[in-house]
Amino acid sequence: MSRIAFLGLGHMGLPMATNLVKAGHEVQGFDPVPAAVDAARAAGIPIAASGADAAADADVVITMFPAGRHVLDAYRGGLLAAARPGTLFIESSTIAVDEARAAHALALAAGHRNIDAPVSGGVVGAENGTLAFMVGGSDEDFAAALPLLEAMGKRIVHCGGSGLGQAAKVCNNMVLAVSQIAVAEAFVLGERLGLEHQALFDVVSQASGQCWSITTNCPVPGPVPTSPANRDYQPGFAGALMAKDLGLALQAIEQTSTDARMGRLAQQLYAAYAAGDGAGRDFSGIITDIRDSAPR
Ligand code: NAD
């Protein structure tokens, strides 16, 4: 049993914290948003007066914040100073690789331990305890965190040293973005060639074009009844989040001078999608933009 400070009780953080409580850990939460606090209390999670207060009592501090600046502000703004020496900081927000490494350096300089452990699997994965964790950090810190990550997730991969969990996350989501666009383009092209959606699905889902973007997140209604296309593209994984993750990918592409033309193009297309009506829609709804951008 660990004493855990869980900071950031939003869409992802609250169900993750709830699964830690179910696994028998002593959890104290904190979030500055009153509605998040009310929902956490209703779920049976005790709330501290501040993040620093929660951290002062904890063996492990988990952060699940919107973006990197929130993490660095919190680490610099008293969280690290409040914790007892040797506290393990698990940073699970999706942030830039260099922000994760900066957070790691701050934690170590303050006498603590730190891993980056971003997730994929969305709110449903968080609720069901089936998240995938991609971890960057030392072998010892990974081993210490593993029982907690196993209470919240199903697939946990140690990707290497600090920042490499975030590196794996950004690479995965770049693949996902490019493949979702490719599948959408194929359906629109098929429509214009007179191909039924179901026929194209039956071929591609069993052939060399097979990928999650068609078998699970099929962007047209019908072939996969549970895909967001069947509920007017209610997420799922919202366009705003995909645009955010591709912004982090672009940052990494530029910092490493990588020739990632498809990744760059996907970033542009999803930035435009999120700036239009796509921010709150599933990212597979980009098929509508593709269809409308060149009407017949
Ligand atoms: P969210 O906005 O619902 O929740 C974030 C919470 O952090 C908010 O309630 C906010 O008030 C709180 N917060 C901000 N600063 C804080 C501080 N200093 N102390 C305590 N709480 C603070 O976001 P979310 O959807 O839960 O996503 C969290 C992270 O997980 C993001 O980095 C996101 O990119 C990533 N992620 C989200 C999904 C998803 O499907 N929602 C999937 C994978 C990864």
**CATH homologous group name of the largest domain:** NAD(P)-binding Rossmann-like Domain
| Overall pLDDT metric | 97
List SSEs in N-to-C order: EHEHHEHEHEEHEHEHHHHHH
What is the C-level CATH assignment of the largest domain? Alpha Beta
Proportion of beta-strand residues: 5-15%
Report the structural category.
alpha/beta
Shape: elongated
DSSP strand count: 8
Largest sheet: number of strands, sense, barrel closure: 5 strands, parallel
How many structural domains are formed by the residues? 2
Pathway: Amino-acid degradation; L-valine degradation
GO molecular function: 3-hydroxyisobutyrate dehydrogenase activity
Catalytic activity: 3-hydroxy-2-methylpropanoate + NAD(+) = 2-methyl-3-oxopropanoate + NADH + H(+)
Organism: Microbacterium galbinum
Present the secondary structure layout:
Elements: E1 3-7, H1 13-22, E2 26-30, H2 34-42, H3 51-56, E3 60-63, H4 68-82, E4 88-91, H5 97-109, E5 113-116, E6 119-120, H6 122-128, E7 131-136, H7 139-152, E8 153-160, H8 164-193, H9 197-204, H10 212-215, H11 239-255, H12 261-278, H13 286-293
Parallel strand pairs: 1-2, 1-3, 3-4, 4-5, 7-8
Antiparallel strand pairs: 6-7
Helix pairs in contact: 1-6, 4-5, 8-11, 8-12, 8-13, 11-12
